[in-house]
Write a structure and sequence with these properties.
Layout lengths: L4 E2 L2 E9 L2 E7 L9 H8 L9 E7 L5 E7 L4 E2 L3 H15 L3 E6 L2 E9 L2 E5 L28 E4 L3 E6 L8 H9 L9 E9 L2 E8 L3 E3 L3 H13 L6 E6 L2 E8 L2 E7 L1 E8 L1 H6 L2
Parallel strand pairs: 3-4, 5-7, 11-12, 13-15
Antiparallel strand pairs: 1-2, 2-3, 2-18, 4-5, 5-6, 7-8, 8-9, 9-17, 10-11, 12-13, 13-14, 15-16, 16-17
């Protein structure tokens, strides 16, 4: 990755996983500290760069890299599977390795080169107890007391999954915004709508907390796959068709593995004037 600080401003990478897009800042050599104001400014698709999440890369104490994630509204995200996969892919390309570890708020994650340009990340074991998701009070996470009886899953951030007849017919903007702020989720929640195509194939659309409608979401894909297994709708290895493409999820004994493509779109530098306007 490039030097994060240049004489003309702050250098960053624009990357995406299935259209779920990110700004990546490599802060391993020091430089500007990311603040909520900087995250919001960068995330503005009209006046900044635009992203679903901002990923800040630092050196890890017990891992190859440490990642911190920000949403476009300036809030911190506990996990971001597609961004983790993008950063892992970039690091493996730069180092020539086929396996690295990454420390996130979710914990220590393992990433491997899956071949054919694909990258796999172990997103860890799902959190299935109400207090771990977390929810505001005790209830059955497999059947929440919300219209549509969704499933709650923790994957480092909270998820609320609705299984419907046709995910494409759902008014995602209206319902996503509504359920993100449901009182049952004290930290807000990511919201997914999914339907079963086959015993190993799901169709999913997603609303991310602090972002809105996204073309894809790695942690949401993991949560939907786990929810489908718990409901008896699919096996533990599933393919998910998202608005941005397809991703593979495998819920194994050691965690939920996510495999998919990544893209490095461009590298650019923010101007000092843009940065000064955010301080």
């Amino acid at each position: 990755m490039p030097d994060p600080v240049s004489p003309s401003g702050l250098t960053f990478l624009k990357m995406h996983g299935l259209g779920n897009d990110f700004v990546v800042i490599d802060a391993r050599d020091g430089g500007r500290v990311v603040t909520p104001a900087l995250a919001r400014g960068l995330g503005d698709r009209h006046r900044g760069v635009g992203f679903d999440q901002l990923a800040v890369v630092e050196a890890g104490d017990d891992s190859d890299l440490r990642l911190t994630f920000w949403n476009a509204d300036g809030s911190v995200a506990g996990a971001c599977g597609n961004a983790t996969r993008c950063v892992a892919r970039r690091e493996m390309e730069l180092t020539g390795r086929d396996h690295i570890t990454l420390r996130t708020e979710r914990g220590l994650l393992e990433a491997v080169d899956a071949g054919d340009g694909l990258t796999s990340v172990n997103m860890g074991a799902p959190l299935l107890e109400w207090q771990d998701v977390p929810l505001a009070h005790e209830c059955d996470t497999l059947s929440l007391p919300i219209d549509g009886t969704p499933v709650a899953t923790g994957m480092g951030n909270p998820h609320c999954t609705f299984f419907v007849e046709d995910a494409d017919a759902v008014d995602l903007e209206a319902l996503g915004a509504r359920f993100e702020h449901d009182p049952l989720f004290p930290q807000r929640t990511n919201v997914q709508f999914a339907h079963v195509i086959g015993p190993d194939h799901l169709r999913m659309r997603v609303w991310e907390r602090g972002v809105g409608v996204t073309l894809a979401s790695g942690s949401s894909s993991c949560a939907v796959a786990v929810a489908a297994v718990r409901r008896g709708l699919t096996g533990r290895r599933v393919r998910l068709t998202l608005d941005g493409g397809e991703i593979a999820i495998d819920w194994r004994e050691d965690g939920v593995w996510m495999t998919g493509p990544t893209a490095h779109v461009f590298t650019a530098t923010l101007t000092p004037a843009f940065l000064d306007a955010l301080t």
